[in-house]
Structure to design on (295 residues):
């Protein structure tokens, strides 16, 4: 199977500051990938390198088997929607479609027209008068009509209202299914990731904390509640992600590949938001591993 994204100790430095460092990832193709992390974690930097907008300072990266921006064929494989869904305010919606046709050799004019009609955009309307949600839909249309193999979206609906966000994500899922797109989506909102993504990457302080298939991550993480105890006494193969104590009780969130049989623990399921928040939190004294990857 083709690898969607492969990085090895990838880094990007601006003078003395590293925006991304020692990032190692292997993401399979054909997935809708959610990239989650706090501000400054390196998400936008990683996406811009993958799209060929930035050159790395260290390490290596391959996107769909090639190097970003290495030539016209590689550029045609990747569509990119930046965080502010940029558009030319003085141009109309139709002007943007004509521009897309001139710049992209794989341009699908029929798909662009159909999608503009489906989301209710007026081809004659100037982009500067569109709402945030409408601009996001136009940007998604341009990205999809390019007919890439990978569509990269960097916080595309961060500034739009909840209804527009929901409509955008629904359109993204439909486009991914219709055109067999791989998608790499950065978002601050776990609800967005939970709605559309089947693969998760959590990036914190420019390092990958966890990466894997969403269903496998959820099935292998558990919340344990029981009498207070030292997490260091847990059996091998149970990796603590977070721990909290009261005077008499310990609560753990841990990863384990096998069932938990200790009757002293009450075991409950972990939702995606709780899982993400646990990995976003500072490492615990229990010694959370720097990286957990589930294939």
């Amino acid at each position: 199977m083709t690898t969607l994204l492969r990085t090895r100790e990838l880094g990007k430095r601006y003078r003395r500051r590293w925006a991304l460092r020692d990032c190692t990832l292997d993401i399979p193709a054909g997935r809708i990938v959610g990239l989650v992390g706090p501000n400054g974690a390196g998400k936008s930097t990683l996406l811009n390198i993958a799209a060929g907008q930035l050159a790395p300072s260290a390490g290596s990266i391959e996107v769909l088997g090639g190097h970003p921006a290495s030539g016209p064929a590689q550029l045609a494989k990747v569509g990119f929607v930046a965080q502010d869904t940029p558009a030319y305010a003085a141009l109309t919606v139709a002007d943007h479609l004509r521009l897309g046709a001139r710049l992209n050799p794989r341009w699908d004019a029929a798909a662009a027209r159909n999608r503009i009609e489906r989301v209710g955009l007026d081809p004659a309307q100037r982009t500067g008068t569109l709402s945030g949600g409408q601009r996001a839909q136009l940007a998604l249309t341009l990205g999809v009509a390019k007919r890439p193999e990978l569509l990269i979206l960097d916080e595309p609906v961060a500034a739009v209202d909840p209804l527009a966000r929901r409509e955008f994500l629904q359109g993204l899922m439909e486009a991914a299914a219709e055109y067999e797109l791989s998608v790499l989506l950065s978002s601050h909102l776990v609800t967005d990731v939970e709605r559309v993504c089947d693969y998760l990457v959590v990036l914190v302080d420019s390092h990958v904390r966890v990466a894997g298939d969403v269903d496998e991550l959820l099935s292998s993480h558990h919340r344990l509640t029981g009498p207070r105890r030292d997490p260091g006494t847990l059996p091998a193969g149970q990796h603590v992600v977070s721990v909290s104590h009261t005077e008499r009780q310990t609560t753990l969130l841990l990863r384990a590949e096998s069932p938990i049989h200790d009757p002293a623990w009450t075991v409950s399921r972990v939702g995606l938001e709780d899982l993400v928040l646990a990995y976003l939190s500072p490492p615990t004294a229990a010694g959370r591993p720097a990286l957990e990857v589930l294939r």
